[in-house]
Amino acid sequence: MTDSVEDTAGTAAASGQDEGPADGSGYPAARVRLLQDEKTTGPDRRAALARLTDEWLAGLLNRHATAAGLSGTALVAVGGYGRGELSPRSDLDLLLLHDGRADPRALAALADRLWYPVWDLGMDLDHSVRTPAEARRAARDDLKVQLGLLDARHLAGDPELSTRLRSTAYADWRESAPKRLPELHALCQERAERQGELQYLLEPDLKEARGGLRDATALRAVAASWLADAPRGGLEAARTLLLDTRDALHLTTGRATDRLSLQEQDQVAAALGVLDADALLRQTYEAARTISYAADVTWREVGRVLRARAVKPVLRGLLTGRTAAKGERSPLAEGVVELDGEAVLARTARPERDPVLVLRAAAAAAQAGLPLATAAIRRCASALATRPLPEPWPAEALEQLVTLLGAGAPTVPVWEALEAEGVIPRLLPDWERVRCRPQRNPVHTWTVDRHLVETAVRAAALTRRVHRPDLLLVAALLHDIGKGWPGDHSVAGETIARDMAARLGFDARDTAVIATLVRHHLLLVETATRRDLDDPETVGAVADAVGTTRTLELLHALTEADALATGPAAWSAWRGGLVADLVKRVAARLAGEPEAEQRGADGPTAEQERLAMEAGRTGGPVLALRTRAEAPAEDAPETDGPEPVGVELLIAVPDQPGVLPAAAGVLALHRLAVRAADLQLLDPIGDGPVLLLSWRVAAEYGSLPEADRLRADLVRALDGSLDIPGRLAERERAYARRVRTVHAPPPRVTVATGSSRTATVIEVRAHDAHGLLHRIGRALETARVAVRSAHISTLGADAVDAFYVTSTDGAPLTDAAAHEVASAVEAALR
What we know:
Layout: H1 3-9, H2 13-24, H3 26-36, H4 42-68, E1 73-77, H5 79-82, E2 92-98, H6 104-120, E3 125-130, H7 132-141, H8 143-149, E4 153-157, H9 159-195, H10 213-224, H11 235-253, H12 262-272, H13 277-310, H14 313-319, E5 330-333, E6 336-339, E7 342-345, H15 357-368, H16 374-386, H17 395-405, H18 411-420, H19 423-427, H20 448-460, H21 469-478, H22 489-504, H23 508-519, H24 523-530, H25 536-546, H26 549-566, H27 573-590, H28 595-599, H29 606-618, E8 622-630, E9 643-654, H30 659-669, E10 672-682, E11 690-699, H31 707-719, H32 724-738, E12 748-751, E13 760-767, H33 772-782, E14 786-795, E15 798-806, H34 815-829
């Protein structure tokens, strides 16, 4: 609304409110009937809702403008409403145009009679009152206004005003596009950094995230500039799917929301007739991926056009260090050249006669850090449809695939371009099952397919550590390929990887190695963080599974690459050190070295021995508490830098019942979250056995507690004067009143048979809730078992803990007793 109108609008709302119910009485009922009509859905419903709203608003303007004797006005829809697309809870973007001759008070009263009936119906409204010249100035000052005017649509009043506005809006946009398009691109990038990529989010914003509806609208604006256009294949279908999903979300929640929250996904899927929430996310990701790819191609073309316009050919050559004329082609590989910052096919290239060309072009583009031209991909894709690669692949094809995977980060955009144009499923048919497949674990950053590519990217940085980089890179690409199949994905993946490796051209020996790597890609990290490495059975089981030192070397690198590609919670210097320690022990076992030589350096540290001896001498708990940033151990894999681990806490206590639940309960009372922990039994000379608990904890909020307070509370917890269960239950009740319910799968407690000869291993997987370790410890105490060692780790919101327990006489539990203990712990956690 212009300043002159705003100044005189005053409280003229009453007149609009008096007539609002009469004006809108038919519209609300008709709107409800339309939204409840199950036969009208999707684009038809959005268009019908827009038409219904058009008629209502046109009636309002015509009636009130006539009554007030006003002429020279027009009502215009802009934005999404201007495109004729109204979702059930969409807001209305309206512009009241006038020729500048009307009395400001009469114009303000007319505006109120238009806006207030909309508000009375509980609808959101974005409104303004302007002359065409004022609208034009506002567009020059505000890019969002200018974009909205590109979708301007006449609703009622003087059509000449609307026509003039629309024609000038397009003319201004095309004239200002060289300046405005970089600004629009920057807005899209800033929004992507803030909202993330829709195709990877578990709770995506359908509108604001990268690949969402905002990006689709931006592509329309680019096309309107006549400077570039987006790839049309599947783009409109992708946009329609996101709009349909948003419609179902609006109807399911009854709110104007664009965020597809976890708790609403099943209902939205049912409303759309989709199998389940995973299928809903998958099709949403596919739509977002189509829009993201179109945006990448379009913005790259915009940049090329703008650079060509901004710099004369000779000057451009000087700026880039080249003296050749525009259009110079630099060879990259056989049949592949660089042209204007892209990898394109050479003029003499014949993809219909050269099925390896697509892989050669992709590898060359990635190695050069260049995008692969869309036209080149489409030519190769068309050729592959009629002349696919023979099976097994020729040696050059496999070599080019390995070269592509070994390029590092530039592999990702090239791979995504191949996938968007349908090339990857033609090359690797099994890829389709993992494509856009969501991973409902907050530790994971990516969908399954992107995670596989990211793992290859991480593995490319580790190829100097292994004797066969090709096996590492291909195993990285295939390690989770079984996630598209029922059952254990490692078991299913082994079979699929064996078949795929043979098709790619690997011989029988290499195929077996790749299959082993896929089958056991979780073995090292799970064993290192959940098993007692001092137990000979642990090292022996890994050695038997791996078989050779060379396979172990590859598996070590794959483990690190997989964890780094999963997300920040999956890898740390601490985990890297544990894995490195396990690998050293297994390598020694495979080399036939005596076990004692490996165990000598793994005893307690000098500080641990000192604490244990003091605890044995004093008969009470002894604590050491300090804050530090953990630097990687000498043999640990390299990371991006020191890992902040918050607090390192060592507790030594003379062996007695209840130590674990007491210590865990005290930490929970002091709001210290346990990130990792180890429990071991030491036997200082002459002082009796001592339990040593090594904790890595972080303060949930506030400052760190003092060691003296922790020790005092631990003493009270051990003698029974501190009611930890009661205190934690009271806090949990208060906490439950303040936060929403956490939707997490139920806890699972199992017996890891065959993991140790000297103890029974109880594995606990659960949501990392407040006081979880205390409840586990109490359940084990109630079951009257002795905890000889424990290995606690937290991955994001999930806790994965392993407890080595024995009966009171120090022997492993019988199978029946072990399963009874597991059931009791699981019941306690539920």
